[in-house]
Amino acid sequence: MTHATDLPRLAERAGRDLEDADPLDILSWAAETFGPRFCVTSSMEDAVVAHLASRVIPGVDVVFLDTGYHFPETIGTRDAVAAVLDVNVITLTPRQTVAEQDAEYGPKLHDRDPDLCCALRKVKPLEEGLTAYDAWATGLRRDESPTRAGTPVVGWDARRRKVKVSPIARWTQDDVDTYITEHAVLTNPLLMDGYTSVGCAPCTRRVLAGEDARAGRWAGFGKTECGLH
Ligand code: SF4
């Protein structure tokens, strides 16, 4: 069993050793190293990482953050993933409902202070939900945006003090599309409707030709990430 104080060093070494490894081997390493203290997180944009993980870690925890602002298609994708894959979907929710938040902060906080809204509805609930784990997997990819270009396949998440595993960090959009086709992986129906990145409904729009995949998130704000990464 790995001692908690060793985790940053272990993460850095694994990031180097596994840089060229197949995503399935990266996930196998995480399962062997962390056992039940490893989970996959999913925004339910697609089920690629959940599908990969289910192949090497049947019954793995897949953590989904229900902000209360999701598109119905996203909730439907979560339910389909729970029904179809050999995974244990865990839904995290913020402390306040949208109505309670509106009562305390005023309506449409996302239009006035998206950083605070994300902190309350995403960052805090995920931090609390991850206390049960030493390591978590994400679907981050280097080609998604300049801010994600340096994503390691395994790294140390100093803020949460967890090992962060990004098994498809080196994959391109073509790699993802090929995997989805070959394995008939569940995807959010909005990806077929002009959206290339799916987040909360008030903060997501369709992208235009020539924009990067995440341009439709918080359009009009100088914000590119919700604070989870
Ligand atoms: Fe709020 Fe928008 Fe962040 Fe969702 S993405 S938590 S609605 S600011």
TrEMBL record:
GO terms for molecular function: 4 iron, 4 sulfur cluster binding; adenylyl-sulfate reductase (thioredoxin) activity; metal ion binding; phosphoadenylyl-sulfate reductase (thioredoxin) activity. Pathway: Sulfur metabolism; hydrogen sulfide biosynthesis; sulfite from sulfate. It catalyses: [thioredoxin]-disulfide + sulfite + AMP + 2 H(+) = adenosine 5'-phosphosulfate + [thioredoxin]-dithiol. Keywords: Cytoplasm, Iron, Iron-sulfur, Metal-binding, Oxidoreductase. GO terms for cellular component: cytoplasm. Its cofactor is [4Fe-4S] cluster. [4Fe-4S] cluster binds at residues 117-118, 200, 203. Binds 1 [4Fe-4S] cluster per subunit. GO terms for biological process: hydrogen sulfide biosynthetic process; sulfate assimilation, phosphoadenylyl sulfate reduction by phosphoadenylyl-sulfate reductase (thioredoxin). Residues 43-205 form the Phosphoadenosine phosphosulphate reductase domain. Belongs to the PAPS reductase family. CysH subfamily. This is Adenosine 5'-phosphosulfate reductase.
